[in-house]
Every structure is written in structure tokens, then in C-alpha cells.
Amino acid sequence: MYHLTDEDRLALAELSVALRLSLAERSEVVRWADARIQASPEAPPDWLVELSLSNQLHILDLTGLLRRLASDVPVESICRRALNRLQRDLTTSYEDIAMLAHQIYRVVGDVMQWDFRNPLMSDATWMDDMFGLVDDGYYTRDQAMDNFDDFCRKYLSPSSSR
Questions:
Q1: Residue range 71-115, pLDDT digits in tens
Q2: Are residues 85 and 124 in the same domain?
Q3: Among 50, 69, 88, which residue terminates a domain?
Q4: Angle made by CA atoms 48, 23, 143, in degrees to the nearest 5
Q5: 3-state class of 1 per DSSP?
């Protein structure tokens, strides 16, 4: 019988978040499941077949199934994986980075369930808020960009800072 590895659970958790926030398409879930089915010499479990046919599932049912399969994955790990999806469209303009900071805030909030006691959640909030405080005249654009870079160095893979 197919055994879910820790990496499998992390991938499923990441897909659940990415689908909820429109950072992934259903086809990515189907490809993931199909690859596992093809690689396994045994008959696949029902849940893996269901994922392979997930184009027929309601999106809430699909994300719920992914969350259930991905139980016990540390939220920080899920968050880092989901955040790294945002790097694909990263540019260096202030406006684009301000939008990216807000996307990061949404991803972290979704994964952390808006628990501001978590340092990652509070740091993401501050990073996003600082861009708004630039508009209000409290900080400079350079300060907001430096804060963004600090957040990326602390939480994301090396290629994500500007």
C-alpha cells in the first residue's frame, strides 16, 4: 500500500494553500497524483485515485482532502513552501514588491490562521504594513524595501530578495 512520506504531506499541504490562494491549478494536483500512481507497483489507495480524478471535485472538497492527507505538517514548513511559489513573478520595482509583500501576508495569514503570536505572522504583517506606512509618510520607500529584503533573508530561499 502507498505510504505518504513527510515530503508527500508537505507537498499536499502546499498544494492545499496554493489552490485556496489561486497560486496553483487543479492540474498540478492531478499531475502529482498521477506521478505517484505511475511510480508505485501496487494498486493505488482510494485517496490517490480521487486526487488523480480531482478535476471532478468541488474546490473546497479538494482542498479539504489535501489538508486531511497533510496532517501534522509544521505550519512554518508549509508557509515557506507556499511563499516560494511567489518568487516566479518577482521584479524589482517598488510597486511590484509592495504587491508581493501583500501576497506574502495573505499566504502567511492563511497558513498560520491569522495567529499573530507566531513570529512569522507578525513579521509578515509588519513587512506588509510598512508599505502602507510609506504612503502615510512614516517611512521611506528604501526603508520598506530594506524591511522586505530582511523578511526574505529570514524566511525565504536565497533567490527571493531583490
A1: 889 988 898 888 888 764 556 789 988 988 998 999 899 889 999
A2: yes
A3: 69
A4: 140
A5: coil
